[in-house]
Design goal:
Elements: H1 2-15, H2 33-36, E1 41-42, E2 48-65, E3 67-73, E4 76-81, E5 92-108, E6 111-125, E7 134-144, E8 147-153, E9 180-190, E10 194-202, H3 214-220, H4 226-232, E11 238-239, E12 245-254, E13 257-269, H5 274-277, E14 286-299, E15 308-317, H6 326-329, E16 337-339, E17 353-355, E18 357-368, E19 373-385, E20 391-406, E21 409-422, H7 424-429, E22 443-446, E23 449-461
Antiparallel strand pairs: 1-2, 2-5, 2-23, 3-4, 3-22, 5-6, 6-7, 7-8, 8-9, 9-10, 10-12, 11-13, 12-13, 13-14, 14-15, 15-18, 16-17, 18-19, 19-20, 20-21, 21-23
Length: 462
Protein backbone atom coordinates (compact mmCIF):
# COMPACT_ATOMS: atom_id res chain seq x y z
CA UNK A 1 0.00 0.00 0.00
CA UNK A 2 2.86 2.38 0.75
CA UNK A 3 4.26 2.21 -2.77
CA UNK A 4 0.77 2.72 -4.17
CA UNK A 5 0.33 5.92 -2.15
CA UNK A 6 3.72 7.23 -3.21
CA UNK A 7 2.94 6.49 -6.86
CA UNK A 8 -0.44 8.20 -6.59
CA UNK A 9 1.11 11.30 -5.03
CA UNK A 10 3.80 11.47 -7.71
CA UNK A 11 1.28 11.17 -10.52
CA UNK A 12 -0.97 13.85 -9.01
CA UNK A 13 1.94 16.27 -8.81
CA UNK A 14 2.83 15.60 -12.44
CA UNK A 15 -0.80 15.80 -13.55
CA UNK A 16 -1.35 19.30 -12.24
CA UNK A 17 2.17 20.60 -12.78
CA UNK A 18 2.54 24.03 -14.31
CA UNK A 19 3.84 24.59 -17.78
CA UNK A 20 1.50 22.14 -19.51
CA UNK A 21 -0.65 22.90 -22.53
CA UNK A 22 -4.27 23.81 -21.90
CA UNK A 23 -7.12 22.76 -24.16
CA UNK A 24 -9.32 25.49 -25.53
CA UNK A 25 -7.57 28.58 -26.93
CA UNK A 26 -10.75 30.14 -28.31
CA UNK A 27 -10.59 28.65 -31.82
CA UNK A 28 -10.94 25.23 -33.40
CA UNK A 29 -8.02 23.53 -35.18
CA UNK A 30 -9.18 21.84 -38.42
CA UNK A 31 -8.69 18.08 -38.50
CA UNK A 32 -6.69 16.31 -41.19
CA UNK A 33 -8.82 13.20 -41.74
CA UNK A 34 -6.21 11.48 -43.90
CA UNK A 35 -3.63 11.80 -41.14
CA UNK A 36 -5.93 10.02 -38.65
CA UNK A 37 -5.87 6.80 -40.65
CA UNK A 38 -7.02 5.22 -43.92
CA UNK A 39 -10.48 4.43 -42.53
CA UNK A 40 -11.34 8.08 -41.80
CA UNK A 41 -13.34 10.19 -44.23
CA UNK A 42 -14.36 13.85 -44.00
CA UNK A 43 -18.06 14.50 -43.48
CA UNK A 44 -19.27 17.17 -45.92
CA UNK A 45 -20.12 20.62 -44.50
CA UNK A 46 -18.74 19.70 -41.07
CA UNK A 47 -15.48 19.78 -39.11
CA UNK A 48 -15.78 16.03 -38.46
CA UNK A 49 -13.94 12.86 -39.52
CA UNK A 50 -15.70 9.49 -39.38
CA UNK A 51 -14.38 5.92 -39.43
CA UNK A 52 -16.75 2.94 -39.57
CA UNK A 53 -15.12 -0.50 -39.50
CA UNK A 54 -17.00 -3.79 -39.67
CA UNK A 55 -15.66 -7.24 -38.80
CA UNK A 56 -16.89 -10.74 -39.58
CA UNK A 57 -14.97 -13.77 -38.34
CA UNK A 58 -15.21 -17.47 -37.59
CA UNK A 59 -13.15 -19.28 -34.94
CA UNK A 60 -12.69 -23.02 -34.55
CA UNK A 61 -11.27 -23.85 -31.14
CA UNK A 62 -10.50 -26.95 -29.11
CA UNK A 63 -8.96 -27.88 -25.73
CA UNK A 64 -7.03 -30.85 -24.45
CA UNK A 65 -6.49 -31.51 -20.76
CA UNK A 66 -6.91 -28.83 -18.12
CA UNK A 67 -9.02 -30.74 -15.57
CA UNK A 68 -8.26 -29.11 -12.22
CA UNK A 69 -10.93 -30.46 -9.87
CA UNK A 70 -13.05 -33.58 -10.09
CA UNK A 71 -16.01 -33.83 -7.70
CA UNK A 72 -18.32 -36.86 -7.71
CA UNK A 73 -21.60 -37.57 -5.93
CA UNK A 74 -23.00 -40.95 -6.99
CA UNK A 75 -23.19 -41.06 -10.78
CA UNK A 76 -22.87 -37.29 -11.00
CA UNK A 77 -19.50 -35.73 -11.81
CA UNK A 78 -18.52 -32.08 -11.85
CA UNK A 79 -15.34 -30.81 -13.46
CA UNK A 80 -13.53 -27.51 -13.24
CA UNK A 81 -10.98 -26.64 -15.90
CA UNK A 82 -8.21 -24.12 -16.41
CA UNK A 83 -10.18 -22.49 -19.22
CA UNK A 84 -13.18 -20.52 -18.06
CA UNK A 85 -14.78 -20.56 -21.53
CA UNK A 86 -14.70 -22.69 -24.63
CA UNK A 87 -15.57 -26.29 -25.47
CA UNK A 88 -15.08 -29.25 -23.13
CA UNK A 89 -11.75 -31.13 -23.39
CA UNK A 90 -11.44 -33.10 -26.61
CA UNK A 91 -14.21 -31.20 -28.44
CA UNK A 92 -14.25 -28.28 -30.85
CA UNK A 93 -16.44 -25.20 -30.79
CA UNK A 94 -17.28 -22.83 -33.63
CA UNK A 95 -17.74 -19.15 -32.79
CA UNK A 96 -19.02 -16.58 -35.27
CA UNK A 97 -18.67 -12.89 -34.51
CA UNK A 98 -19.91 -9.70 -36.15
CA UNK A 99 -18.44 -6.42 -34.93
CA UNK A 100 -18.98 -2.75 -35.67
CA UNK A 101 -16.55 0.01 -34.59
CA UNK A 102 -17.47 3.68 -35.02
CA UNK A 103 -15.03 6.54 -34.38
CA UNK A 104 -16.25 10.13 -34.85
CA UNK A 105 -13.94 13.09 -34.28
CA UNK A 106 -14.96 16.73 -34.44
CA UNK A 107 -12.85 19.85 -34.16
CA UNK A 108 -13.94 22.33 -31.46
CA UNK A 109 -12.56 25.31 -29.59
CA UNK A 110 -12.02 23.02 -26.57
CA UNK A 111 -9.98 20.50 -28.56
CA UNK A 112 -10.97 17.38 -30.50
CA UNK A 113 -14.30 15.87 -29.49
CA UNK A 114 -14.04 12.11 -30.02
CA UNK A 115 -16.84 9.55 -29.70
CA UNK A 116 -16.11 5.81 -29.93
CA UNK A 117 -18.66 2.99 -30.01
CA UNK A 118 -17.88 -0.71 -30.42
CA UNK A 119 -20.60 -3.37 -30.67
CA UNK A 120 -20.36 -7.14 -31.14
CA UNK A 121 -22.64 -10.13 -31.63
CA UNK A 122 -21.29 -13.67 -31.01
CA UNK A 123 -22.74 -17.14 -31.33
CA UNK A 124 -21.00 -20.36 -30.26
CA UNK A 125 -21.87 -23.89 -31.35
CA UNK A 126 -20.43 -26.92 -29.58
CA UNK A 127 -19.07 -25.09 -26.55
CA UNK A 128 -20.88 -24.37 -23.31
CA UNK A 129 -24.59 -25.33 -23.24
CA UNK A 130 -26.96 -22.92 -24.94
CA UNK A 131 -26.29 -21.48 -28.37
CA UNK A 132 -28.13 -18.16 -28.04
CA UNK A 133 -26.26 -15.20 -29.57
CA UNK A 134 -24.47 -12.90 -27.13
CA UNK A 135 -24.87 -9.19 -27.84
CA UNK A 136 -22.60 -6.88 -25.91
CA UNK A 137 -21.24 -3.37 -25.81
CA UNK A 138 -17.48 -3.65 -26.04
CA UNK A 139 -16.77 0.08 -25.69
CA UNK A 140 -18.59 3.41 -25.67
CA UNK A 141 -16.79 6.55 -24.54
CA UNK A 142 -16.32 10.26 -25.19
CA UNK A 143 -13.05 12.22 -25.17
CA UNK A 144 -12.92 16.01 -25.03
CA UNK A 145 -9.67 17.74 -24.26
CA UNK A 146 -8.25 16.10 -21.16
CA UNK A 147 -11.47 14.30 -20.13
CA UNK A 148 -12.53 10.73 -20.99
CA UNK A 149 -15.87 9.31 -19.84
CA UNK A 150 -17.62 6.04 -20.70
CA UNK A 151 -16.69 2.38 -21.11
CA UNK A 152 -13.21 1.66 -22.47
CA UNK A 153 -9.93 -0.07 -21.72
CA UNK A 154 -8.68 0.51 -18.19
CA UNK A 155 -5.86 3.04 -17.96
CA UNK A 156 -4.02 0.55 -15.73
CA UNK A 157 -3.57 -1.90 -18.61
CA UNK A 158 -0.51 -1.81 -20.85
CA UNK A 159 0.45 -4.98 -22.74
CA UNK A 160 -2.32 -6.12 -25.05
CA UNK A 161 -4.19 -2.83 -25.25
CA UNK A 162 -2.58 -1.45 -28.41
CA UNK A 163 -1.07 -4.61 -29.88
CA UNK A 164 -2.88 -7.78 -30.89
CA UNK A 165 -1.09 -10.04 -28.44
CA UNK A 166 -2.94 -13.32 -28.22
CA UNK A 167 -5.14 -12.19 -31.09
CA UNK A 168 -6.62 -15.66 -31.65
CA UNK A 169 -6.90 -17.02 -28.13
CA UNK A 170 -9.88 -16.76 -25.74
CA UNK A 171 -10.58 -13.19 -24.71
CA UNK A 172 -10.07 -13.74 -20.99
CA UNK A 173 -7.16 -16.18 -21.00
CA UNK A 174 -4.27 -13.77 -20.71
CA UNK A 175 -1.43 -13.65 -18.18
CA UNK A 176 -1.66 -9.87 -17.86
CA UNK A 177 -4.38 -7.38 -16.82
CA UNK A 178 -6.85 -6.64 -19.61
CA UNK A 179 -10.30 -5.20 -18.80
CA UNK A 180 -12.86 -2.76 -20.12
CA UNK A 181 -14.65 -0.80 -17.39
CA UNK A 182 -16.86 2.27 -16.88
CA UNK A 183 -14.63 5.20 -15.99
CA UNK A 184 -14.12 8.94 -15.67
CA UNK A 185 -10.55 10.03 -16.39
CA UNK A 186 -8.44 13.14 -16.80
CA UNK A 187 -5.29 12.95 -18.94
CA UNK A 188 -2.63 15.63 -19.11
CA UNK A 189 -0.06 15.54 -21.92
CA UNK A 190 3.31 16.97 -20.97
CA UNK A 191 5.69 18.05 -23.73
CA UNK A 192 3.91 15.78 -26.20
CA UNK A 193 5.64 12.51 -25.28
CA UNK A 194 4.41 12.00 -21.70
CA UNK A 195 0.75 11.40 -20.83
CA UNK A 196 -0.34 11.27 -17.18
CA UNK A 197 -3.82 10.03 -16.22
CA UNK A 198 -5.93 9.96 -13.07
CA UNK A 199 -8.98 7.73 -13.49
CA UNK A 200 -12.01 6.68 -11.45
CA UNK A 201 -12.89 3.16 -12.64
CA UNK A 202 -15.91 1.16 -11.50
CA UNK A 203 -14.50 -2.33 -11.02
CA UNK A 204 -17.97 -3.84 -10.69
CA UNK A 205 -18.60 -2.98 -14.37
CA UNK A 206 -15.84 -5.40 -15.43
CA UNK A 207 -14.31 -8.64 -14.19
CA UNK A 208 -12.26 -6.71 -11.60
CA UNK A 209 -15.28 -6.61 -9.30
CA UNK A 210 -14.92 -9.91 -7.46
CA UNK A 211 -17.85 -11.65 -5.81
CA UNK A 212 -17.05 -14.85 -4.01
CA UNK A 213 -14.16 -17.21 -4.61
CA UNK A 214 -15.36 -19.65 -7.24
CA UNK A 215 -14.10 -23.19 -6.86
CA UNK A 216 -12.77 -22.62 -3.35
CA UNK A 217 -16.17 -21.20 -2.41
CA UNK A 218 -17.63 -24.67 -2.95
CA UNK A 219 -15.05 -26.23 -0.65
CA UNK A 220 -14.22 -23.68 2.05
CA UNK A 221 -17.78 -23.52 3.25
CA UNK A 222 -17.53 -27.03 4.66
CA UNK A 223 -16.40 -25.15 7.76
CA UNK A 224 -19.83 -23.52 8.11
CA UNK A 225 -22.90 -25.13 9.68
CA UNK A 226 -25.70 -26.42 7.46
CA UNK A 227 -28.04 -23.60 8.51
CA UNK A 228 -25.89 -21.12 6.56
CA UNK A 229 -24.86 -23.19 3.59
CA UNK A 230 -27.66 -22.34 1.15
CA UNK A 231 -26.85 -18.62 0.89
CA UNK A 232 -23.29 -18.43 2.11
CA UNK A 233 -22.01 -19.64 -1.25
CA UNK A 234 -23.29 -16.40 -2.84
CA UNK A 235 -20.13 -14.65 -1.75
CA UNK A 236 -17.67 -14.32 1.08
CA UNK A 237 -16.22 -10.97 0.13
CA UNK A 238 -16.97 -8.51 -2.64
CA UNK A 239 -16.14 -5.21 -4.27
CA UNK A 240 -18.18 -2.25 -3.08
CA UNK A 241 -20.05 -1.29 -6.30
CA UNK A 242 -20.64 2.26 -5.08
CA UNK A 243 -16.90 2.98 -4.83
CA UNK A 244 -14.74 3.24 -7.96
CA UNK A 245 -11.14 2.14 -8.09
CA UNK A 246 -8.63 4.98 -8.16
CA UNK A 247 -6.13 4.41 -11.00
CA UNK A 248 -3.05 6.40 -11.89
CA UNK A 249 -0.83 5.86 -14.92
CA UNK A 250 1.95 7.64 -16.76
CA UNK A 251 3.12 6.59 -20.22
CA UNK A 252 6.11 7.93 -22.15
CA UNK A 253 5.98 7.31 -25.92
CA UNK A 254 9.06 7.85 -28.07
CA UNK A 255 10.31 6.67 -31.45
CA UNK A 256 12.15 3.77 -29.78
CA UNK A 257 9.03 2.50 -27.96
CA UNK A 258 7.19 3.31 -24.74
CA UNK A 259 7.31 2.95 -20.94
CA UNK A 260 4.36 2.96 -18.52
CA UNK A 261 4.02 2.93 -14.73
CA UNK A 262 0.64 2.46 -13.05
CA UNK A 263 -1.04 1.97 -9.70
CA UNK A 264 -4.57 1.29 -8.42
CA UNK A 265 -6.49 1.48 -5.16
CA UNK A 266 -9.38 -0.99 -4.79
CA UNK A 267 -12.11 -0.98 -2.08
CA UNK A 268 -13.39 -4.18 -0.47
CA UNK A 269 -16.20 -4.68 2.00
CA UNK A 270 -18.14 -7.48 3.65
CA UNK A 271 -21.08 -5.61 5.13
CA UNK A 272 -23.49 -6.39 2.27
CA UNK A 273 -22.97 -10.15 2.74
CA UNK A 274 -24.20 -10.29 6.33
CA UNK A 275 -27.76 -11.13 5.34
CA UNK A 276 -26.47 -13.95 3.12
CA UNK A 277 -24.49 -15.48 5.94
CA UNK A 278 -27.10 -14.98 8.63
CA UNK A 279 -24.86 -13.25 11.18
CA UNK A 280 -23.80 -9.73 12.04
CA UNK A 281 -20.19 -9.24 13.12
CA UNK A 282 -19.67 -6.10 15.19
CA UNK A 283 -19.12 -2.96 13.14
CA UNK A 284 -18.57 -2.61 9.41
CA UNK A 285 -15.28 -3.95 8.11
CA UNK A 286 -13.84 -2.21 5.06
CA UNK A 287 -10.61 -3.29 3.42
CA UNK A 288 -8.45 -1.79 0.72
CA UNK A 289 -6.59 -3.56 -2.04
CA UNK A 290 -3.86 -2.10 -4.20
CA UNK A 291 -1.83 -2.86 -7.31
CA UNK A 292 1.30 -1.41 -8.89
CA UNK A 293 2.97 -2.23 -12.16
CA UNK A 294 5.36 -1.17 -14.90
CA UNK A 295 5.81 -2.10 -18.54
CA UNK A 296 8.05 -1.30 -21.49
CA UNK A 297 7.94 -1.84 -25.25
CA UNK A 298 11.01 -1.57 -27.50
CA UNK A 299 10.85 -1.30 -31.27
CA UNK A 300 13.29 -3.63 -33.06
CA UNK A 301 13.54 -2.51 -36.69
CA UNK A 302 16.92 -4.24 -37.05
CA UNK A 303 15.08 -7.60 -36.77
CA UNK A 304 12.17 -6.69 -39.01
CA UNK A 305 10.01 -3.75 -39.95
CA UNK A 306 7.49 -3.07 -37.14
CA UNK A 307 9.07 -5.74 -34.87
CA UNK A 308 8.73 -5.03 -31.15
CA UNK A 309 9.13 -6.70 -27.77
CA UNK A 310 7.27 -5.96 -24.52
CA UNK A 311 7.71 -6.77 -20.84
CA UNK A 312 5.37 -6.07 -17.91
CA UNK A 313 5.36 -6.79 -14.17
CA UNK A 314 2.48 -6.28 -11.70
CA UNK A 315 2.18 -6.79 -7.96
CA UNK A 316 -1.24 -6.78 -6.25
CA UNK A 317 -2.63 -7.15 -2.73
CA UNK A 318 -6.37 -7.52 -2.30
CA UNK A 319 -6.90 -6.69 -6.01
CA UNK A 320 -5.89 -9.86 -7.81
CA UNK A 321 -7.55 -9.11 -11.16
CA UNK A 322 -5.00 -6.35 -11.70
CA UNK A 323 -2.28 -9.01 -11.79
CA UNK A 324 -3.77 -11.07 -14.64
CA UNK A 325 -6.99 -11.54 -16.56
CA UNK A 326 -6.28 -15.29 -16.46
CA UNK A 327 -7.44 -15.42 -12.85
CA UNK A 328 -10.94 -14.53 -13.96
CA UNK A 329 -10.90 -17.37 -16.49
CA UNK A 330 -10.04 -19.73 -13.64
CA UNK A 331 -13.45 -19.17 -12.06
CA UNK A 332 -12.28 -16.69 -9.42
CA UNK A 333 -9.54 -18.88 -8.00
CA UNK A 334 -7.76 -15.71 -6.98
CA UNK A 335 -10.19 -14.11 -4.52
CA UNK A 336 -9.42 -10.52 -3.62
CA UNK A 337 -9.72 -11.37 0.08
CA UNK A 338 -11.36 -13.60 2.68
CA UNK A 339 -13.06 -12.56 5.88
CA UNK A 340 -13.46 -14.43 9.13
CA UNK A 341 -16.60 -15.80 10.76
CA UNK A 342 -16.57 -16.81 14.42
CA UNK A 343 -12.92 -17.73 14.17
CA UNK A 344 -13.77 -20.81 12.08
CA UNK A 345 -12.75 -19.50 8.66
CA UNK A 346 -8.95 -19.57 8.65
CA UNK A 347 -8.83 -18.50 12.30
CA UNK A 348 -9.51 -14.89 11.35
CA UNK A 349 -11.34 -12.66 13.87
CA UNK A 350 -15.00 -11.96 13.09
CA UNK A 351 -15.29 -9.62 10.14
CA UNK A 352 -11.52 -9.33 9.57
CA UNK A 353 -10.39 -9.18 5.94
CA UNK A 354 -7.30 -11.01 4.75
CA UNK A 355 -6.11 -9.85 1.30
CA UNK A 356 -4.75 -12.23 -1.31
CA UNK A 357 -1.34 -11.46 -2.83
CA UNK A 358 -0.60 -11.89 -6.53
CA UNK A 359 2.40 -11.17 -8.74
CA UNK A 360 2.66 -11.51 -12.50
CA UNK A 361 5.24 -11.11 -15.24
CA UNK A 362 4.43 -11.20 -18.94
CA UNK A 363 6.44 -10.75 -22.12
CA UNK A 364 5.79 -10.81 -25.85
CA UNK A 365 7.58 -10.49 -29.16
CA UNK A 366 6.03 -9.70 -32.55
CA UNK A 367 7.89 -10.41 -35.76
CA UNK A 368 6.83 -9.41 -39.27
CA UNK A 369 8.32 -11.71 -41.90
CA UNK A 370 6.65 -9.57 -44.57
CA UNK A 371 3.53 -7.37 -44.87
CA UNK A 372 1.54 -10.60 -45.26
CA UNK A 373 3.08 -12.84 -42.58
CA UNK A 374 3.26 -12.12 -38.85
CA UNK A 375 4.25 -14.11 -35.77
CA UNK A 376 3.53 -13.29 -32.11
CA UNK A 377 5.08 -15.24 -29.22
CA UNK A 378 3.96 -14.56 -25.65
CA UNK A 379 4.50 -15.93 -22.17
CA UNK A 380 3.43 -15.18 -18.64
CA UNK A 381 3.70 -16.38 -15.06
CA UNK A 382 1.26 -15.58 -12.24
CA UNK A 383 1.80 -16.53 -8.57
CA UNK A 384 -1.11 -16.22 -6.11
CA UNK A 385 -0.59 -16.37 -2.35
CA UNK A 386 -3.91 -16.77 -0.57
CA UNK A 387 -4.39 -17.09 3.16
CA UNK A 388 -2.94 -20.38 4.41
CA UNK A 389 -3.72 -23.24 1.98
CA UNK A 390 -4.86 -21.24 -1.04
CA UNK A 391 -1.71 -20.90 -3.12
CA UNK A 392 -1.10 -21.67 -6.78
CA UNK A 393 0.90 -20.61 -9.84
CA UNK A 394 -0.13 -20.32 -13.49
CA UNK A 395 2.31 -20.56 -16.41
CA UNK A 396 1.21 -19.60 -19.91
CA UNK A 397 3.01 -19.87 -23.29
CA UNK A 398 1.44 -19.15 -26.67
CA UNK A 399 2.05 -18.25 -30.28
CA UNK A 400 -0.01 -16.78 -33.13
CA UNK A 401 0.77 -17.05 -36.85
CA UNK A 402 -1.18 -14.68 -39.11
CA UNK A 403 -1.41 -14.55 -42.90
CA UNK A 404 -2.97 -11.65 -44.82
CA UNK A 405 -3.26 -12.71 -48.46
CA UNK A 406 -5.10 -9.47 -49.33
CA UNK A 407 -6.00 -6.22 -47.54
CA UNK A 408 -8.81 -6.69 -45.04
CA UNK A 409 -8.66 -10.50 -44.98
CA UNK A 410 -6.73 -12.60 -42.47
CA UNK A 411 -6.23 -16.30 -41.78
CA UNK A 412 -4.56 -17.32 -38.55
CA UNK A 413 -3.68 -20.18 -36.25
CA UNK A 414 -2.76 -20.10 -32.56
CA UNK A 415 -1.48 -22.58 -30.01
CA UNK A 416 -1.46 -21.99 -26.24
CA UNK A 417 -0.07 -24.13 -23.41
CA UNK A 418 -1.05 -23.48 -19.81
CA UNK A 419 -0.11 -25.14 -16.53
CA UNK A 420 -1.70 -24.68 -13.11
CA UNK A 421 0.30 -25.81 -10.05
CA UNK A 422 -1.06 -25.90 -6.51
CA UNK A 423 1.09 -26.12 -3.41
CA UNK A 424 0.98 -29.49 -1.58
CA UNK A 425 -0.87 -27.84 1.34
CA UNK A 426 -3.56 -26.51 -1.02
CA UNK A 427 -4.05 -29.86 -2.74
CA UNK A 428 -4.32 -31.59 0.62
CA UNK A 429 -6.77 -29.05 2.07
CA UNK A 430 -9.21 -29.28 -0.85
CA UNK A 431 -9.03 -32.97 -1.72
CA UNK A 432 -10.63 -36.01 -0.15
CA UNK A 433 -14.06 -37.06 1.06
CA UNK A 434 -15.88 -34.52 3.27
CA UNK A 435 -16.93 -35.48 6.75
CA UNK A 436 -20.55 -35.84 7.96
CA UNK A 437 -22.60 -32.65 7.83
CA UNK A 438 -20.15 -30.68 5.71
CA UNK A 439 -21.51 -28.28 3.11
CA UNK A 440 -19.94 -29.98 0.11
CA UNK A 441 -21.18 -33.62 -0.09
CA UNK A 442 -18.93 -34.61 -3.00
CA UNK A 443 -15.84 -36.74 -3.06
CA UNK A 444 -13.30 -34.45 -4.61
CA UNK A 445 -9.75 -34.24 -5.87
CA UNK A 446 -7.84 -31.03 -6.53
CA UNK A 447 -4.80 -31.56 -8.71
CA UNK A 448 -2.23 -29.80 -10.87
CA UNK A 449 -3.17 -29.64 -14.52
CA UNK A 450 -2.00 -28.50 -17.92
CA UNK A 451 -3.92 -27.81 -21.11
CA UNK A 452 -3.37 -27.09 -24.79
CA UNK A 453 -5.70 -24.78 -26.71
CA UNK A 454 -5.72 -24.60 -30.53
CA UNK A 455 -7.52 -21.91 -32.49
CA UNK A 456 -8.01 -21.31 -36.22
CA UNK A 457 -9.56 -18.08 -37.44
CA UNK A 458 -10.82 -16.52 -40.66
CA UNK A 459 -11.52 -12.78 -40.40
CA UNK A 460 -12.72 -10.11 -42.82
CA UNK A 461 -12.48 -6.43 -41.93
CA UNK A 462 -14.28 -3.86 -44.07
Amino acid sequence: MGFCRVSAAAVLVALFATGTTRAGDGKATPLDCAALGPAFVALPSTESCLAVVGTARLDAQGHRGGRVLTARSGPEERLWRIEGTGPPPGRFALTTRAGLDIDLRTSSEFGTLRTVTSLAIERTTGGTPGGAPAVYLDAAYIELGMVTVGRRQSFFDYIGTNDRWYALNPTTNRPWPDAKVDLLAVTRKIEGALAVTASLEWAASGYRGRNGIGIFDELILADMPNALRTRARDGLVGTDPAWPDLVFSAILTETWGSVQVMSALHRLENDRHRSYLGFSPPGTTVGWGSATGAGATVNLPMLGESDRASLQVVRASGATAYAAASLDALGNFGADALFGWSGRLNDLPDGALKPTKAQSIAAGYRHFFSPRWELAVTGGYVAVNGYRARDFALTDLGGDLLWRPMPGFMLGAALEWRRLDFTPATRSAFSGKPGPGEYNPWRRRLRDAHSVTATVRAERTF
